[in-house]
Write a structure and sequence with these properties.
By secondary structure, the protein is of the alpha+beta class. Helix content is 51%, strand content 10%. It folds into 2 domains: 2-27 and 169-256, no CATH class; 37-151, no CATH class.
Length: 257
């Protein structure tokens, strides 16, 4: 998903747009593992460009003939999920299994994006299936190289993303999915729109303490009318941030009366 930094987001992911005074508590280094893995995998492609193993691709044709007889296959939908199945075993003996799996999955993501991007949406099922298989095989033969390459850049990348996330708290917010930073600042609207088209709901989470007649009003999720919004297919998300900032502005004016 290029609008969200190229990160693969599952339709069942729990996503939220966080804009609040204390949102930087979620901007820790661990929240940037997925984003960094994806960014680092792109940077490592030049040195990790091994061709797909023939032992992997030799079965693609026969498998795809069977699959396309019983149903349809779309490269973009099937390649990444098929590829990441190998990541738990790939990282079973890693010193840092979490980062290793993120690196492995990011390798699947970026490789599948490259291979599937060569196809038109309306290409034949066999073309989609074969390229899906080829993408997964290409990623798998590059796992070791990618994981080693990415490991050398994680610390610096995570620190950079954490700073960007903290700045985003007061400049349009940050989108998190399953606890991982997905988009920040100027990328928030485009990412939220892309998630909506995918069918992922994005909760707008505002946690602001407002002094009004000595009463603290904490607005978060659906705990107050108008403070909970979901981004879904019917509504879309254009102007989400503008709407949210307008709400914050209104609360601010009330605060200073």
């Amino acid at each position: 998903m290029p609008e969200c930094g190229g990160i693969y987001v599952d339709v069942d992911a729990a996503c939220s747009l966080e804009v609040d005074i204390g949102c930087d508590v979620d901007c820790d280094l661990s929240a940037a593992i997925t984003a960094c893995a994806n960014e680092l995998s792109i940077g490592c492609k030049g040195g990790c460009s091994f061709d797909a193993d023939i032992s992997c691709t030799s079965d693609c044709g026969a498998t795809c003939e069977t699959q396309c007889t019983t149903g349809d296959v779309k490269c973009q939908d099937n390649c990444q999920p098929e590829c990441i199945v190998a990541c738990p075993d790939q990282c079973a003996d890693s010193e840092d299994p979490g980062k290793c799996r993120s690196s492995c999955e990011a390798t699947c993501n970026t490789t599948c994006d490259d291979k599937c991007g060569e196809l038109s949406v309306d290409a034949a099922c066999e073309e989609h299936c074969n390229m899906c298989c080829f993408g997964s095989c290409t990623a798998s033969v590059n796992f070791d190289c990618q994981i080693e390459c990415q490991a050398s850049g994680f610390a610096e990348c995570q620190a950079s993303f954490a700073q960007e996330c903290q700045a985003g708290c007061s400049a349009g917010g940050n989108v998190f999915c399953d606890g991982q930073l997905i988009a920040t600042g100027s990328r928030v609207d485009a990412c939220a729109d892309a998630l909506a088209k995918l069918g992922v709901e994005v909760e707008i989470d505002v946690d602001v303490d407002v002094d009004l007649d000595d009463v603290d009003l904490e607005l978060a999720g659906d705990e107050a009318d108008g403070a909970f919004c979901s981004v879904g297919e019917p509504r879309g998300s254009s102007g989400l941030v503008a709407l949210l900032l307008g709400m914050l502005g209104a609360w601010s004016r009330r605060r200073h009366r």
